Amino acid sequence: MRTLCSSTLIGEFFVIGFAGLVAMKDPGLSTSTVWLVSGIAMVLCVLLCGMVSRPGGVALGWALQIALVASGVFVPTMFFMGALFAALWWASVHFGRKIDEAKARFAESASSKADAV
Question: How far is CA 54 from CA 24, 65, 81, in A?
Fold first, then answer.
């Protein structure tokens, strides 16, 4: 699960950076505010890569997905991109867990076969 979720988060890192560039063109937003918010979100993406397998890591990832969709208020394209990455996050968590379960079953099967020999 960690690999799939981390890949999604790194993709989000870049999307948030590009959204920050688009948001800078809005005359109602100051450049420092845009980069403060974008920078914090980008750092969270990187930090979450290491926290995905820890308790609460997936929940924090969902919070980031909600914030990404909500950023569509300032950059309308982010409604679409946020929804797309939320779907990717769901798929990463869902299929990542299935892969982890399959790996555990395989390791258990290999261990029991080794013990039988």
Answer: 35, 18, 26
